[in-house]
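Below is a concrete protein record.
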Amino acid sequence: MISEILLPESEIAYAGTLSRVLEITNVSNKSVELGKWHISNDAYKPNLYKLPDISLQPGKAIVLISDGKNTAADGYYHTNFTITNASKIYFTQGGIK
């Protein structure tokens, strides 16, 4: 499901700041309910950011901007954490207690 993680040389300018980007693409032939998944940069907090409650259709993608703003604006989703070139990314389904 993950098609691309753009790190550290690949920052984008958004609202005057440079941020790293994660792109999630549905490479399956079925829609994927993203709201069942969480993403985090912290193994001890795997539920840090809940993906949006959208159905990602086959071949479609969403972009997550890792700028710590925790908002959705201008067609982008902003995570509540940031990533660096040393970050590990964790995906969990259904949330872990």
